Structures are given as structure tokens and as C-alpha cells.
Amino acid sequence: MIGGAQGSGVDTSANIFGNAVAASGYYIYGNREYYSNIKGRHSYFNLTISDKPPRSIAQQVEILTSFDAETIFQHFNEVKDVLIYSTEVESTKAEQVQSMESEITEHVVKFLKEKGYGTTVKDVINYLKKEKGIKVIPIDYMEILKKVADQAKVQLSVADRARNTIAIAASYKLLGLKEQYLLNSITRTFRQEVFAKINTIAAQLAMQAVQPMYNLPELPNNEDKINLDGNTAAAIGKIYGGLRFQSYYPITPASDESVFIEAHQTVFTVDPKTGEKRKSTIVVVQAEDELAAINMASGAALTGVRAATATSGPGFSLMVEGMGWAGMNEVPVVITYYIRGGPSTGQPTRTSQADLMFALNAGHGEFPRIVIASGDHVEAFHDGTWALNLAQKYQTPVIHLVDKALANSYSIIPKKQLGMENIRIEKGKIVINSSTPELKRFEITEDGISPFAPLGATRIHYTGDEHDEYGFIAEASENREKMYEKRIKKLFTADKEIPEETRLNIFGNTDSKIAIITWGSPKGAILDAMEELESEGIKPMLIQIRMFSPFPKNLMKKLLSGREFIIDVESNYFGQAGEVLKLNTGIEPTHHILKWNGRPMMRDEVKEAIKAVVQKGERKVVLHGGA
């Protein structure tokens, strides 16, 4: 874990470190946590290194690296092996750290005093060495920075921008990996010669001050890998899925997706039959608000292009009226919904899974919507395409749920795991040129899906009111019944056509008496915890729900039949996926493992929680990990 003030380069430092580790043949999984201000408050990055792809982070870390006092105060009880810190902050008292929230300060002060220590960083250091046997590595950051300034012939204020590189270089040296990989990563990151130079010198000096401790061997690195975060994965999935219009209004953490698409809006395709190369452009529009964003996306979808928007909780709240219009008019539009802490502004930069019920029920009146949820970066990529396919095939809004913990986590993935060559674009009942001057756009059909023609191909009528098959406003009771049923019927068609096996994933021991259900980002922590629990004789089955509407009720009933433990694991208070399960199947979870403090689930806390349920019979375990 590396920590420092928001805006001081924590994220950049972690990426430099992670890329160097990846160059050594290792896989990484990292998560960044940050306050909702621009600069100054505490930010930290938690990174797992493994010889096989990890899927989560841990609350307890082997190495804690800091370049300020607050990181030490906030995280000292999370370190297991080594603490690297700057000698400059030794005399800093917890009460003096103005950026630290008062409740955290009070907790730290109380803890240290109860242990018989003072409240300075030096007191924390003494506690860690004496009480926990932690190896402490003090580094005089200022002395190194003065040497950097001297060797690079720059002012000390310029050299100070390499402070965070000192921290990661010391951490990297502990691993015992090839130093050149870190230097290469620095060179690739800093394009300006002066910054590449000062950071390279700082890294070399820092590595000279530390001795290797873990001596990790270099691993074969002979396969193509890709470093993805959740936002980027979803964005690439949309691009591969044929996206041609994306609207958005800036909001955390959804904006990164649209920014990525805009930076890669020129798309090159090859006709597989003729070999002809084509160039097209994805139009990305920053709207004046979220209602405009959903309406723009709907308008684009009606022209026949694949269209989507992306938002988070408060933005989705504003989109609800527009989504209702899309439901009434059977618009094939995708909403990528990044879930963060609420209600209201809530915790803009923290994770949550509390919006599941909202996504399933948002909007007045009844209309079909398909709701899918990604559990890792590979799924986020495929779901970007899947959502567009589903929207066009069933002519209905599709909501793609990605919780913030997944959006802002990174992982190194073997490129072949993405299966990019298997991506297929599926189209629905599209009529390009109608032979009639007027299309029965809402024709009542057996499956509820009507012929679709893009605007301009023929005369088409759209309105927010109830309408007849041509789209003209009609309020007659018989027409209302037929059109209402026609729209809802599409959900039954989707339920019939989409294999239930594709709507959930199954892992672990299918014969176990223990069944865990989850969705979204907790998947990774649970799978990693399950691997560790196997040696202790606990071998559960995990069911990850991938689609909530239509819900895979028949398969869920079959899978959960006869289980002694049905443990619902998710990041909200009420166990909303468990409520959806009960609503659709009549089966209720027997136990819950829940978390709602805004931090991601971590494998070590999930492991202990599962043990508490299975071995101690605890009905509800609440997780608290994360600063």
C-alpha cells in the first residue's frame, strides 16, 4: 500500500510500481481510494502482487509505504511486515494533521494512549517495532531530494516532485526484482526529460538505501497482457460492440469511461467478407445535464446507431424520466450505471451496491428493462458489448451495473483471456428501407418485438403518451391493454431466449452444503478467500448473479435446493440481491455478509466472515475494512 495527499501523485506512483512488477512477470490487482476533493486529503493505493492473476486486495498488507504522516496514522494497524517512512515526519503528532478527519484522529490518539504511547509518528514506529515486530525502514527523503537537485541541476522545489518515487523505489527494492524494470517504467511515464531525469535519479538513490527482503524470482513473461481498470474495460467493450454515440454529464466515477471513448473515437473496422477497411467515428457529447444525456442517447438510438450513456447514482436519478420515455417507445439504449455511495451526493468517490433495487424499479409505470452486472474486468469488457446487443435485439433500455470498486480497480490480464476475437454483434428486427410510406413501429407481435426502422427510412411517430401500433396517441382501454402487454412480453421473450446458464456463474464445490451468492466486485474477494479456505476444509459453492432482469429463477432454485447455508455477500445494508432472490424464487438467504462503509470487500475480511458464519453460526457479519 502506498499513501499520501490527494494530488501528490499516489495514483501515478502506484502505476509506475505496478508496471515494473508486471514487467518482471507478475500479475497485479490494485485499488485506489481517494477523497472527493481535488487536492490535499488522504489518498491511497492498495496493490496485490501474485504469480497468478489475483482478484482482490487485502486489508492487511506486507509493505506500507508513506510519504506523509497521515498515511502512517491511518494505516499503521494494517501493516504486517514492513513500514517505509520519511524521517521528516517523525515528530508530527496525530493532532497536528489538519487534513485528517476528527473521528480518525480521536481513534488514533485513543488507541496509542491506551497502549501507553504518545501520539507522534515516532511513537507509532516504536509501537510497531515493539508490539508487532514490524521492520521499519526510515529514509531521509529530504537528503535524497537535495542530491537529486544537485545531480539534475534543478531547484529543490522541482526535485521535490520526485518524493513519491523515493517511496515506490524503496518498496520495489525490497522485492528483489530487476531494478531496470522500474527505471524503464519511470521513463515511459514521464515524457518530459527533466521529470524523467529527476525521478530516475531519485529511484536509483532510494534503491541504494534499501536491501532486498523478499527476493522474488523473475517469472517467464512470454504472453501478451493488458492493464485494465473497470471504466476502461467497459469503454472498450462498447467500442468493440459497435458503439457510435455516447452522451454523458461529468460525474464520479462514470466520467472516465466517456473520456476514454472520446480519446479513442476513431474506429477502424475490416469487412470479413471483402477485406475492405472502413473508418468511422464515435460521437461523444457532454450534455448540459443527465436528462439531456439520456434523451440524446435515445434520439441517437432511434436513428439506427448503437447508442449509450454513462452515469452514477445522482445522475441516474435525473435520467429516470428519460428512461421511462425510452421504455414507452421501445428504444434500444444502454445506460452504464456506476454505483457509488448515496443517498444524495453521499460518498462520490466510494463504492456501494445499494442501487440494485433502484435500477430494477426506477421509473413510474411498468416497462421492461434488462439489468446486467459485471463482477470483474473481463466481464466489464464483454458486458459493454452484451448490453448493446441486448438493447438492439429486445428494443428496450439495458442497464449495465458496475460498482465503483470495480471501476477504480486495476488488474493485469492475459490478453487472450479477453477473447476479443469472439466478440459478435447481434442485431434485431431492423428494417433499413420500408416499402410502405408508414411503418407500424409498434406492431403487436407474438414475441412483443416490433420491426424497427431508423428515423428517415419511413414515416414513424414517437410520443411519450400511450399510442397505437403506428405511434399515434391512443387512450382507448383495449388498445392500452394490448400495447402494455406487448411491451412487457419482450421481457418474457428475453427470459425464454437468454440461457439461464449465461445469467450467472458458478464456482467451487457444487456438492457443498454451503452456497454463497453475490454480484459485482465482491466476486474477486470471495474467490480468493475460497482458495485460502480450502486448506481449512471449508469448500463452498459460489453463485455470481450476472443478470437481475430477467432473473435466472429456475436455475437458482435448482442450485440452492437442499443447501444448509445460503450466504448472501454484498455491499449494502439490506442485502438487496438476497431480496431479489426471495422475490423471484421464494428462497431466502440464511446468512448475510454485508459491508456499507464505502470501501471494497477484501479477501482476508471475507475469509474470516465466512468462517464466522460456518463455524460459529453468525447470522449476519458486517465488514469494516478500509481507512
UniProtKB/TrEMBL annotation:
Superkingdom field: Archaea
Keyword list, A-Z: Oxidoreductase, Pyruvate
Any Pfam family the entry gives: PFOR_II
Enzyme class: oxidoreductase
Positions of the Pyruvate:ferredoxin oxidoreductase core domain: 513-581
GO biological process terms, semicolon-separated: response to oxidative stress
This enzyme's EC code(s): 1.2.7.11
InterPro entries given in the database record: 2-oxoacid/accept_OxRdtase_asu (IPR022367), 2-oxoacid_Fdx_oxidoreductase (IPR053400), PFOR_II (IPR033412), Pyruvate:ferred/Flavod_OxRd (IPR050722), Pyrv/ketoisovalerate_OxRed_cat (IPR019752), Pyrv_Fd/Flavodoxin_OxRdtase_N (IPR002880), Pyrv_flavodox_OxRed_cen (IPR002869), THDP-binding (IPR029061)
Molecular function GO labels: 2-oxobutyrate synthase activity; 2-oxoglutarate synthase activity; pyruvate synthase activity
Location of the Pyruvate flavodoxin/ferredoxin oxidoreductase pyrimidine binding domain: 237-486
Pyruvate/ketoisovalerate oxidoreductase catalytic domain: residues covered: 7-208
Role noted for this protein: Catalyzes the coenzyme A-dependent oxidative decarboxylation of different 2-oxoacids such as 2-oxoglutarate, pyruvate and 2-oxobutyrate to form their CoA derivatives.
Subunit description: Heterodimer composed of an alpha and a beta subunit.
Entry protein name: 2-oxoacid oxidoreductase (ferredoxin)
Organism: Saccharolobus shibatae
